[in-house]
Design a protein that fits this description.
There is one protein chain. The two termini are 30 Å apart. The chain has 2 domains: 124 residues; 122 residues, 60s Ribosomal Protein L30, Chain: A. A 5-stranded mixed β-sheet has the order 4-1-5-10-11. Strands 6-9-7-8 form a 4-stranded mixed β-sheet, sandwiched between helices. Helix 1 crosses helix 4 and helix 2 packs antiparallel against helix 3. Helices cover 40% and strands 23% of the residues. The longest helix has 25 residues. By secondary structure, the chain is of the alpha+beta class. Strand 10 and strand 11 form a beta hairpin. The structure holds iron/sulfur cluster (SF4). The site of iron/sulfur cluster has 10 residues, from helix 5.
């Protein structure tokens, strides 16, 4: 009996991962679509409005024809929250790799995994550390899975810096605005920005990327960070870079900030850009094998 349960659940995990990759590539999550619609309705620049109109039309056509939203279908990461009492633990990574290979063929996804030693495209979006899987174990009996394919245009604009602790939040704010100005239209705005400070090199990079997973309609529970997010968003949108860098009031849809305690002598900061094609799809897999999709309407 335990073997049968495990076999079924691994299949459910693989199927769910495939469905999430397909959903993420073709349909933006509800909160991102709503934010883009709101931006379109309130954009004051004619050129900016035209760009947002094209983006919304792009989303409509992708859904209607069941095609990826963008030609760059990204490099695949998964975020796994695994309940300590979830019945399956073995073989999850392999199931995620199989799901990625299948999605590459069937969605289809553009093969984006290049082995940098051989300079050879692996052809199926898998390879050393790809898909990258972020693991978290918690007290519970279910599993949460997020598929997060991310394109190179926004990834190339990300920044990691070791600021002087003397400058603190003032230095962070300057770095964010300078980085956004330097990026201009390259990350396909309106962007979502994940910003993290404190901790160390690996910690800020992880937190800044994770901040991109927070739904856009979910306020930061830490009041100081919520205030900082609003302040940064206002300053970024005052740059006038606008949708696709062609001018307008919507350069960013949201800024999400997180932090970790820091060493007294260090002030690491990471800034993660996400383009308007902010693809992510999440599901909860229950211990009985039932699946609830959290970001998309399914069925
Ligand atoms: S940055 Fe985003 S929208 Fe622009 S080309 Fe890359 S994946 Fe597509």
């Amino acid at each position: 009996m335990p073997l049968a349960v495990r076999e079924v659940s691994i299949q459910v995990i693989e199927e769910t991962a495939f469905n999430l990759l397909k959903l993420a590539s073709i349909v933006l999550p509800r909160d991102v679509k709503e934010a883009l619609r709101r931006a379109y309705e309130t954009e004051t620049s004619e050129m900016g409005k035209a760009q947002l109109e094209a983006i919304l039309e792009n989303l409509r056509v992708a859904e209607e024809r069941q095609l990826p939203i963008c030609q760059d279908t990204g490099v695949v990461s998964f975020y796994v929250r695994l309940g300590a009492d979830f019945p399956v633990r073995k073989g999850i990574h392999e199931a995620l790799v199989r799901a990625t290979k299948r999605a590459t063929k069937e969605v289809p996804l553009r093969p984006n995994a290049v082995d940098p030693i051989e300079e050879r495209n692996t052809g199926d979006n898998t390879g050393r550390y790809i898909p990258f899987v972020h693991w978290e174990v918690f007290d519970g009996d279910y599993m949460e899975l997020i598929a997060f394919p991310k394109g190179a245009g926004s990834e190339n604009m990300c920044k990691l810096a070791m600021l002087s602790p003397a400058h603190r939040l003032k230095g962070l704010k300057k770095l964010v605005i300078d980085t956004v100005l330097e990026a201009g239209g390259k990350p396909c705005p309106p962007v979502i920005l994940g910003v993290a400070f404190g901790g160390g090199l690996d910690i800020v990079a992880e937190l800044a990327k994770r901040a991109l997973l927070r739904p856009l309609d979910q306020p930061n529970p830490i009041p100081e960070l919520a205030k900082l997010e609003e302040e940064l968003l206002k300053a970024i949108n005052e740059t006038g870079i606008g949708p696709m860098g062609l001018g307008g009031r919507w350069t960013a849809l949201r800024v999400h900030v997180d932090y970790a305690c820091r060493h007294p002598g260090a002030y690491p900061v990471a800034i993660a850009f996400q383009c308007w094609a902010a693809r992510r799809a999440a599901a909860r897999i229950n211990a009985d094998g039932s699946v609830e999709y959290l970001t998309h309407e399914v069925g």
